[in-house]
Write a structure and sequence with these properties.
Layout: E1 13-15, E2 28-31, E3 38-42, E4 54-57, E5 63-65, H1 77-92, H2 98-101, H3 103-108, H4 111-125, H5 128-148, H6 159-170, H7 176-195, H8 220-228, H9 236-246, H10 250-253, E6 261-262, E7 265-268, E8 271-272, E9 278-279, E10 287-290, H11 293-302, E11 314-315, E12 319-320, H12 323-336, H13 351-371, H14 375-388
Antiparallel strand pairs: 1-4, 2-3, 4-5, 6-7, 7-10, 8-9, 11-12
Bound molecules: zinc ion.
Zinc ion (ZN) binds next to loops.
Length: 389
């Protein structure tokens, strides 16, 4: 021990809160004759020493430290002295980080605490959907895997842990796409702490590739052919044209009312089930289908004189289309045009309308982030603006 004294700084000090159990006097701090470092704490008269000591590291910005890094009290002078020497060495090498040593500060960087701090930050700064895509995976999956790996501190995260989380998720029976989303959330958490200099090195994340789902489409030339085969009576043509562009399920398409035409989009409030009864849309989520501006204005014009609750597409005598009616209309026209595609497998839009929908979705998300609102608030904002002009 003594050889270290001349080479290390003498910051920090070992002390005790106790008094001699026999004479009740303060324990004496024996100091090294040269370095003046405290090298022993005892009562010279009674030959007793304290049960516990602590490190006074206030001059290193780490406060008073009562436990080692595992949370154990310093029950011998030797243990405390080894820790203070390690701290001094860090200090001399200019890599002293108080939070690395002080247990109270370590808590901030526990996986639990660091995760909740990051989540709080997200909640205040990003869109709700972004926030929930991060919170769920971390809270419900990644955190428990890290606990199994015995990783308790964000600063300890290394590539090897990232790999282990990845493997655990893959073998957990999740879909590849889900694993990718979870790993993205985990990556953002690490990035957050790396950007704040808490995580010293950003771990490497695997590239998770998910096979793109093939979205079939009908080329515009074929759409024109099919439309040419649709009987011109009732609202047939307009119905099929909207089907091409909107990407609706047939059951949603035929259930549209005038009031669903909003802000250049068709809001899906309900759909018909197989028995012809109205029900809420799939998964109870209100969706918006986009169509081109020219089609939208024709739909508006078509609905002139209708009341908000009236169906947009009607046939003989103003009845709405039944699923069967739509099915026959479609199948007959498609077959006559030489295109064999059943409508039930989902809407078959043109490639152009698919691309447009994706771009609009992207734009909407960007706008939401800018406005820090959810989708409804975004709508309200857009309306407010137009009313002011
Ligand atoms: Zn004593």
């Amino acid at each position: 021990m003594t050889t270290m004294y001349n080479s290390l700084c003498m910051k920090g000090c070992i002390r005790t809160l106790e008094k001699c159990p026999v004479c009740k006097k303060t324990f004496a701090l024996s100091r090294h004759p040269v370095s003046k470092d405290v090298i022993y704490i005892h009562c010279e008269i009674c030959q007793t020493h304290p049960k516990f000591v602590y490190i006074d590291a206030r001059d290193m910005g780490a406060g008073k430290i009562y436990t080692d890094q595992h949370g154990h009290k310093f029950d011998s002078f030797g243990v405390a002295h080894r820790q203070i020497e390690a701290m001094r060495r860090d200090h001399d090498e200019k890599k002293f980080d108080p939070s690395q040593w002080a247990p109270g500060m370590r808590k901030i960087y526990s996986i639990e605490e660091s995760c909740s701090q990051w989540i709080t930050f997200l909640k205040a700064t990003v869109s709700y959907s972004h926030f929930s895509h991060c919170k769920g995976p971390m809270d419900n999956h990644v955190k428990s895997i890290l606990a199994q790996l015995k990783v308790t501190d964000v600063r300890d995260l290394r590539t090897i842990h990232v790999d282990a989380v990845y493997v655990a998720l893959l073998s957990g029976g999740f879909e590849k796409k889900t694993v990718r989303n979870y790993m993205q959330a985990f990556h953002q958490y690490c990035q957050y702490w790396f950007d704040r200099d808490v995580l010293v090195k950003m771990p490497k994340f695997p590239e998770v590739t998910v096979p793109e789902k093939f979205k079939p489409w009908i080329p515009v030339e074929k759409q024109i052919l099919i439309l040419g085969q649709v009987p011109d009576d009732y609202d047939n043509r307009l119905l099929i044209e909207t089907f091409f562009q909107g990407g609706h399920r047939p059951s949603e398409l035929i259930a549209h009312r005038k009031k669903d035409l909003q802000e250049g989009e068709m809001v899906v409030h309900q759909s018909f089930d197989a028995k012809g009864c109205l029900k809420p849309p799939k998964a109870n989520r209100i969706k918006r289908r986009s169509v081109s501006l020219s089609l939208f204005s024709r739909l508006l014009k078509h609905c002139e004189g209708k009341s908000p609750e009236d169906f947009i597409f009607t046939r003989d005598g103003g009845r709405h289309y039944s699923y069967d009616a739509f099915y026959h209309l479609w199948t007959n026209a498609a077959e006559a045009a030489g295109v064999k595609i059943p409508p039930v497998a989902g809407a078959r839009r043109s490639k152009v309308s698919q691309v447009r929908e994706e771009l609009e979705k992207e734009l909407k998300e960007k706008l939401q982030d800018v406005l820090e609102h959810d989708s409804d608030a975004y709508k309200a904002y857009a309306r407010d603006r137009s009313e002011k002009i």
